[in-house]
């Protein structure tokens, strides 16, 4: 990679980092392209050279984060017992949350803005559906009598834990995750 390409990548990264923080802290709708350019230390024209719109910038951020999360959230080996698979899913979810809390603040705030989600397309819906389907299957194999409802409850619980962690600086994430997994295991074995 030549010097110009390196500089381009660094500029794109700076723009995305600044935009992600502003979108997460101030909201997508309240953040202007001009403010992103100012905070990133680039001209408005240069920003538009990389992104034709705020929506395109958001899509770039989300795509990059999804790619990073897929690399981080590796699936456990085949043949792992169902509860062990579920435990891996829960733990890796919160490890990802701790690795990039700014992205997850943005992600959670966007989920509260249906118009923004609609503009983002169906990828978010597809990921949620795939996650729910996988958990339903694993919960059924682990002995749940109502795996679909249990998967929905599990995802809602994980969302709640994530929200608390992202908004409360002293939230005891590790203790809560351990306790949640213990309760889930006892429930499935009970």
From TrEMBL:
Pfam families: TetR_N. Keywords: DNA-binding. GO terms for molecular function: DNA binding. Residues 32-51 bind DNA. Signal peptide: none annotated. Gene3D superfamilies: Tetracycline Repressor, domain 2 (1.10.357.10). Residues 9-69 form the HTH tetR-type domain. InterPro entries: Homeodomain-like_sf, HTH-type_Tx_Regulator, HTH_TetR. This is TetR/AcrR family transcriptional regulator.
């Amino acid at each position: 990679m030549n010097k110009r390409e390196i500089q381009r990548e660094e500029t794109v990264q700076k723009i995305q980092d600044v935009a992600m923080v502003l979108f997460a802290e101030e909201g997508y709708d309240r953040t202007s392209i001009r403010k992103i350019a100012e905070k990133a230390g680039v001209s408005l024209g240069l920003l538009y050279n990389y992104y034709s719109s705020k929506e395109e910038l958001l899509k770039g951020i989300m795509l990059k984060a999804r790619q990073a999360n897929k690399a981080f959230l590796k699936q456990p080996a085949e043949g792992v017992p169902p509860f062990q698979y579920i435990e891996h899913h829960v733990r890796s979810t919160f490890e990802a949350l701790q690795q990039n809390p700014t992205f997850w603040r943005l992600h959670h705030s966007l989920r509260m803005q249906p118009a923004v989600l609609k503009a983002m397309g169906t990828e978010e819906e597809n990921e949620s559906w795939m996650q729910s389907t996988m958990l339903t299957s694993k919960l059924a194999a682990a002995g749940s009598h109502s795996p679909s409802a249990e998967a929905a409850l599990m995802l809602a619980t994980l969302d709640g834990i994530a929200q608390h962690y992202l908004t409360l600086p002293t939230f005891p994430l590790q203790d809560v995750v351990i306790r949640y997994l213990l309760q889930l295991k006892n429930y499935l074995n009970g």
